[in-house]
Design brief:
The chain is an all-beta fold. The protein has one domain (6-63, 82-119). 0% of the residues lie in helices and 44% in strands. It holds the Pfam family GerPE.
Length: 127
């Protein structure tokens, strides 16, 4: 049986948690964050609704993830000198894109983040 430990933290400073990310304080059984994004970089800030891109335009968004079916068996012996984990301060700029900031135990995680980056470059005209 796994020995539980308590987390003692004096302060946490997190600037932002975005795009299907999780800030979890305490024990968690399962976490399955998922994020889908299309990032378009172009020379102008004007968007044409008729030329917008969609997830259906790119096969990466419809593919099934290839999860590991069964974890390999690992034998491990751990001795905790203290029944707690103690820290004073935690400073984090960002938790982003289907990621997890976990303070406590986490039994199962399946995170899936898919981003398609598109860079549109303006064609140069000869003078």
């Amino acid at each position: 049986m796994k020995t539980k430990r308590t987390v003692h933290i004096q302060s946490i400073d997190v600037n932002s948690v975005t795009f299907s990310s999780i800030l979890s304080i305490g024990d968690t059984k399962k976490a399955h964050p998922t994020s889908r994004a299309i990032a378009v970089q172009q020379p102008s800030a004007v968007f044409n609704a008729h030329k917008e891109v969609t997830y259906a335009d790119y096969p990466i968004f419809s593919r099934k993830p290839k999860w590991i079916q069964q974890s390999p068996s690992v034998q491990k012996n751990t001795f905790h000198h203290q029944p707690y984990i103690r820290t004073k301060n935690i400073f984090t700029i960002a938790v982003n894109g289907s990621s997890i900031f976990q303070l406590g135990s986490l039994q199962e995680v399946k995170a899936d983040s898919r981003t398609k980056h598109i860079r549109k470059i303006r064609k140069h005209q000869n003078p």
